[in-house]
Specification:
By secondary structure, the chain is an alpha+beta fold. The chain is built from one helix and eleven strands; from the N terminus they run H-E-E-E-E-E-E-E-E-E-E-E. Strands 1, 3, 5, 7, 9, 10 and 11 form a seven-stranded mixed sheet that branches. Strands 2-4-8-6 form a four-stranded antiparallel sheet, with no helix packed on it. It is elongated, with a radius of gyration of 26 Å. It starts with 13 loop residues before the first helix and ends with a strand.
Length: 217
């Protein structure tokens, strides 16, 4: 009796092949999107906080038209802005505000400076995070220019001046929750800077630190 030859598997139909290609495409797309989400997580968090004032983060995306950059002539309410500076214990820098406070009218621009000094014998890259208190004023506290979340490379024993140009939005005056707010504190904290696996600059410590990041040089 002759042995029965093995049966070959039936070839998939055109519709099955199309279905398999679709699954492969969507699977690959999911991997790419997941990687992109990881890559953008830190930058998008910063952008979200800056755009909305979330978590006491001052806005940095305000529209700086001439009308908004002038005090309301019908109001003489001034806000005292105090400046605070901290540096991580692992960062051998001195970091101080050059002025303790300024008094501004909503809509009035103001320029302030901080000073950072590298007290070590080696150049170090630092990065600053920031917030304002009380937290609910953050959507009205707009920064035109500042040094936050930017690479600050300071050479051994070098001292640098770091400017911040800001204003309090005039809409602050129309918010009933802001009626009793007469004083705010702008705080910066410097950390050693690191880079995550995608090259984003991140602080070495704190809520924005990323596991597996490497020292920025």
């Amino acid at each position: 009796m002759r042995p029965t030859p093995p049966r070959s598997s039936p070839r998939p139909s055109a519709s099955q092949r199309q279905h398999n290609r679709s699954l492969l495409f969507y699977g690959a797309a999911t991997v790419v999107l997941a990687g992109a989400a990881t890559y953008l997580a830190v930058p998008l968090y910063r952008a979200f906080c800056s755009a909305t004032g979330y978590a006491g983060t001052p806005r940095t995306d305000a529209r700086f038209d001439a009308e908004r950059l002038s005090p309301d002539p019908k109001s003489d309410k001034r806000v005292r802005v105090r400046f605070n500076a901290d540096a991580s214990d692992s960062l051998p820098w001195s970091f101080t505000p050059q002025q303790k406070e300024v008094s501004v009218l909503p809509g009035e621009t103001a320029l302030a400076f901080y000073t950072a000094t590298n007290n070590s014998d080696d150049p170090i890259v630092g990065i600053a995070t920031y917030n304002v208190t009380p937290n609910n004023i953050a959507p009205y506290f707009a920064k035109v220019e500042c040094f936050c979340f930017e690479e600050q490379r300071i050479h051994a024993h070098e001292e640098v001046d770091l400017p911040i140009f800001f204003f309090i939005d005039r809409d602050f005056l129309d918010d009933p929750l802001m009626k009793d707010v007469r004083e705010v504190t702008l705080s910066y904290t410097f950390f050693r800077a690191r880079r995550d696996g995608y090259g984003n600059l991140v602080p070495a410590e704190g809520p924005l630190a990323v596991a597996g990041s490497v020292a920025a040089v």
